[in-house]
Amino acid sequence: MMRHEAYITGIGLSEVGVRLSRSPLGLTVDAVREALADAGLGFDQIDGVATYPGRMPAFLGFSPVGTEDLIETLGLRTRWHAGGGEMTAQLGAIALAAAAVRAGHARHVICFRTVYEAAALARPEEYPPLRRKEVDGASQWTAPYFALSAANWTAQFATRHMKRYGLTREQLAQVALNAHANAARNPRAIVKKPLSLDDYMSARMISTPFCLYDCDRFTDASTVIIVSAGDALDEVTGVPVRVAATAGSVDRYSWDQAEWAGAYATGRDLWRQTDYTAADVDLVQFYDGFAFQPITWLEGLGFCEVGEGGRFIEGGARIALDGALPMNTGGGQLGAGRLHGFGMAHEAVTQLRGHAGARQVAGAPRVAIATSGGGPMAAALLLARD
């Protein structure tokens, strides 16, 4: 182990469900306890906390718990914490924690993402929806044109791929079919059975070319990743996984929509931070809030040429659990639930440790990529089992 590196030493996941009654803070504490037990650490050893995007009072279902909530609830004595939306997508919180432990600002950092959107919609009296007469910020460029969902603007990127590069719905379907097949092997996933191509093609449309199965679903859960300094590994009992490289990008939010999703810039930057190449990667966990987004990551990270993503996954064999590049082995967000990016890191670590059970990738995988984001912002982690 390398003293000046950062390692993921513990992972935790709360109950995952739809319209849960357990409070979001309670779910977060459950996931923290599981992660601490996994790492072999105690509350008194945690000196850092990171999250994305922090507590959002105006949109509590989306982000109901902030760093200060967790620090106070657990009685942590922290030296460093970070939690806000001004970072490179969800996994940017883990990248920041890795930088902090490398710089000596902390030794063990709890990184978490808690979502409560399904429960919040079911209990509007407790989690009132945001209602405004005027719009500002990023929504001023989309809401007046009835692009109220990320499905709307992500669909534009997908439609361009169809028009320019020949992406078909049958090719796009393979992302959802693969996610459902893998989720059926994952006891903690929301989806419990595989999906057929006929069922996919006959599903109602949401925002062309996306149908119902191309979109993740609101989920209630908390995911925790503990990042530790290399010189603190003698304090942990969990199997460490090294954060070998990180990258991220944020384009401006503007009326002039970014021409390319953030995955492309982030993909290029990731390989500048490491001697690893795409050929070294054993499996990938690509953000799939919508089924088109993994295609942007395949192209952005150089697993295929730009415009070739649809043909790369055609038929589904290449990205299957026993394929050349297993993808979203736990079911991703389309199958396991909308853990908003953090589930990708959780599954990557589970696979690299060899703890994935019926969905375990064969051959003792050593290198994985986890990503988050799908529009103008994106983040990627390259993880290695030393």
TrEMBL record:
**Which key words are in the record?**
Transferase
Domain of life, source organism:
Bacteria
| UniProt xrefs under Pfam families | Thiolase_C_1
* Residue span, Thiolase C-terminal domain: 263-380
GO MF annotations, alphabetized: acetyl-CoA C-acyltransferase activity
PANTHER family, alphabetized = ACETYL-COA C-ACETYLTRANSFERASE, NON-SPECIFIC LIPID-TRANSFER PROTEIN-LIKE 2
Q: What is the protein named?
A: Acetyl-CoA acetyltransferase
Q: Which organism is it from?
A: Nitrospirillum iridis
